Amino acid sequence: MPDYGGDCVFNKMKYFFLYCYEAAEKMEERTDSFAEQRAERMEAFRANRQEAEGKAKAKMDEMRSEAQKQVKEALGKVGVANKDEISELKTLVTDLSKKVDKLAKK
Question: pTM value?
Answer without folding.
Answer: 0.47
